[in-house]
Design brief:
Elements (H helix, E strand, L loop, with lengths): L4 H9 L7 H8 L4 E5 L3 E4 L7 E7 L2 E6 L5 E7 L18 E4 L3 E7 H10 L1 H7 L15
Antiparallel strand pairs: 1-7, 2-6, 3-7, 4-5, 4-6
Length: 143
């Protein structure tokens, strides 16, 4: 495997899920659009109307909201391989900011392509949602 966005996404999803060769091929066919962001730059903002999600390729990203008191509240941190705004598939309007904390490279994936692959490849849909594949073998007492 190379360090392409598709390979990075496959490696991340395979941490908890089983993907067939056909699933891997389908992920490889996704159109990834690479963009670099300098540190402390918004990748997307609250109230944006997203049409794509992003895969963190390099750098550190956080999801954050501004509280009623004006302070920034960090909701989560994200590292390479994460898709921090996957929930934007189901949001018409973003309810948080996505911020590059360091110099960051992301690969944008159009929502229409993510929806298509989720319909066509149920194991990918489950992996993206964080559901473990029923065919995954675990050692120890995990669930």
């Amino acid at each position: 495997m190379t360090n392409s966005p598709a390979d990075l996404l496959v490696r991340r999803l395979r941490l908890d899920s089983v993907l067939s060769d056909e699933d891997v091929s389908a992920i490889g066919s996704l159109p990834f659009h690479i963009k670099d962001f300098p540190a402390r730059t918004a990748i997307s903002r609250e109230h944006d109307r997203p049409s794509q999600s992003c895969l963190v390729v390099s750098g550190l990203v956080c999801r954050a909201k501004v509280t009623d008191g004006g302070a920034r509240q960090i909701l989560s941190f994200h590292i390479p391989g994460d898709v921090p705004d996957l929930q934007s598939l189901h949001l018409e309007v973003m309810d948080h900011d996505l911020i590059a904390l360091s110099d960051t490279r992301v690969a944008f994936i159009p929502h229409q392509d993510l929806r298509r692959i989720a319909r066509e490849r149920p194991d990918i849909a489950e992996a993206l949602c964080g559901k473990r594949s029923s065919t995954r073998r675990y050692s120890g007492s995990g669930s």
